Each structure stands twice: as structure tokens, then as C-alpha cells.
UniProtKB/TrEMBL annotation:
Organismal lineage: Eukaryota, Viridiplantae, Streptophyta, Embryophyta, Tracheophyta
Protein's UniProt keywords contain Endoplasmic reticulum: yes
Protein name: Signal recognition particle 54 kDa protein
Domain SRP54-type proteins GTP-binding: 231-244
Sections of the chain in a coiled coil: none
Catalytic reaction annotation: GTP + H2O = GDP + phosphate + H(+)
Length: 258
């Protein structure tokens, strides 16, 4: 099998899996079998393929901690719930932790959204140390066997040293598997510097662009991708929980050019 065919088979298998309403053991096995077949047909060593299968299955049982970062008003808290809700529908057991002790009302907002989506949440009205809350939240939900723990962090109006230091500490204490940078689609030219500043403090691994239902073309997303060397994974298309889409290159590029 030539490389292009192999790539095609693998992306088809992954696409089928992500299209599934619920990703359970059966769907995962089908996807893995499909990939295994393609790899073996391409003469990849049997042992390597078998190890890959075993490792992927091991990862599935593991809890993922995902930390959200971004400026205040970017849509970070809203996006945390959308991300949790999206994965809950796919069969995951998500939970939300509010480590934003800076903005008054942040915990109430997260609590309200989480309650609406029937997603467990953790936060505090009294505790002012975001690191402490983040650690307690993650530990609590690990004990409850949640497999996706989402940590919302404080945003500020601009890039401030204190915000980055706090974020760095939360990241060091909770050791997230993924850090997602949330950016408003209307940010435009400022996106590169902003995203780069975040990347310098925490290891951003993905980008979510919000408010794509507005007039902005979202060109700043390209700068954020370049600055963080991370892909855009979802876009926000409204204020509601289900106004959230997996990022798709074609419509995004048409909008940029149109
Ligand atoms: P945070 O300060 O970054 O946590 O931002 P919030 O989550 O509080 O969001 C700020 C505002 O943007 C709120 O009024 C949200 O309802 C709104 N918002 C978030 N995402 C979207 C989106 O994709 N589309 C639209 N139209 N509004 C959004």
C-alpha cells in the first residue's frame, strides 16, 4: 500500500470513529482493526502494530485532564461546558473544575452551565488559591472515575504577568494532558502575540476559536496556529451549549476567502 493510500485508510477509520454517536469499546475496536489492517498491508512490522493496539487501549481507560486558557471574554468558560457536553454525548464521563478565582461570578457561571448539562462540577466561593482548587477538583473527580476533567482558569483583560504565573502554577500542579487556548474570532492581528505569550507559559496543544457566528472571518486563528504550533480543534458558533463544531478546514478557508 502506498503512503497516500495508507494515510487515506487511517483518516477514514478515524473519521468513522469520530462520527459515531457514542465511542464505546466496539467502535474503538472497529477503528483499531481497520488501522491494523492498513498498517499490515503496508508491511509495518506485526509487533509494532500489536504494541500500538495495546497502548491505545491502555490510554482509553486513563483520565484526561484538559486545561483551558485564554483572555477574559474570549468565551473560555462557555467553551469548557461545550467541550464537556460534546464529549458527554460521545460517551465520556466529563467533569468541570472552576479554578478561576479572579472573576467574580465565574464559579456561578460554570455551576449554572454544568447543572444545565448535568455535568459534575467543582469550585469554591471561599478559597482564593486557584492552584488549591484545581488540585482538589482533579483529585476529587479522579476518585469518582471521571475520564475527562476540564479545568477552567482565570482570564484577564490583557496579557498580564500575574495571569501567566498563575496559569503556569495550575498547569504544574495538575499536569494536564492537553492545554487548550481559547480565542475570540474577532481578535484579528493581535492573535499571534497573544497566543505566543500563552504558549511561552504553558504548553498549549490545541486552539478553539469562538464566536464564529459573528461577522469576523477568524483569520487570527491562522496566527494562533502558527504561534502555538497547534491545530484548531473546534469552533464556537453561538452562546448555547450545542453551538459547537469540530473544526473543518474547507468551510473555514471559504469563509476567509469569501
Ligand atoms: P470567558 O471570560 O473567557 O470565560 O468568557 P465567557 O465564557 O464568559 O464568554 C463571554 C461571552 O461570550 C458570553 O456572553 C458568552 O455567551 C459569549 N460566547 C462564548 N462563546 C460564544 C460563541 O461561540 N458565539 C457567541 N455568539 N457568543 C459566545
Amino acid at each position: 500500500m502506498v503512503l497516500a493510500q495508507l494515510g487515506g485508510s487511517i483518516s477514514r477509520a478515524l473519521q468513522q470513529m469520530s462520527n459515531a454517536t457514542v465511542i464505546d469499546e466496539k467502535v474503538l475496536n472497529e477503528c483499531l482493526n481497520e488501522i491494523t489492517r492498513a498498517l499490515l498491508q503496508s508491511d509495518v512490522q506485526f509487533k509494532l502494530v500489536r504494541d500500538m493496539q495495546t497502548n491505545i487501549k491502555k490510554i482509553k481507560g486513563k483520565t484526561s485532564v484538559v486545561m483551558f486558557v485564554g483572555l477574559q471574554g474570549s468565551g473560555k468558560t462557555t467553551t469548557c461546558t461545550k467541550y464537556a457536553y460534546y464529549h458527554q454525548k460521545k460517551g465520556w464521563k466529563p467533569a468541570l473544575v472552576c479554578a478561576d478565582t479572579f472573576r467574580a461570578g465565574a464559579f456561578d457561571q460554570l455551576k449554572q452551565n454544568a447543572t444545565k448539562a448535568k455535568i459534575p462540577f467543582y469550585g469554591s466561593y471561599m478559597e482564593s488559591d486557584p492552584v488549591k482548587i484545581a488540585v482538589e477538583g482533579v483529585e476529587t473527580f479522579k476518585k469518582e472515575n471521571c475520564d475527562l476533567i476540564i479545568v477552567d482558569t482565570s482570564g484577564r483583560h490583557k496579557q498580564e504577568a500575574a495571569l501567566f504565573e498563575e496559569m503556569r502554577q495550575v498547569s504544574e500542579a495538575t499536569k494536564p494532558d492537553l492545554v487548550i487556548f481559547v480565542m475570540d474570532s474577532s481578535i484579528g492581528q493581535a492573535a499571534f502575540d497573544q497566543a505566543q505569550a500563552f504558549k511561552q507559559s504553558v504548553s498549549v496543544g490545541a486552539v478553539i476559536v469562538t464566536k464564529m457566528d459573528g461577522h469576523a472571518k477568524g483569520g487570527g486563528a491562522l496566527s494562533a496556529v502558527a504561534a502555538t504550533k497547534s491545530p484548531v480543534i473546534f469552533i464556537g458558533t453561538g452562546e448555547h451549549m450545542d453551538e459547537f463544531e469540530v473544526f473543518d478546514v474547507k468551510p473555514f478557508v471559504s469563509r476567509l476567502l469569501g
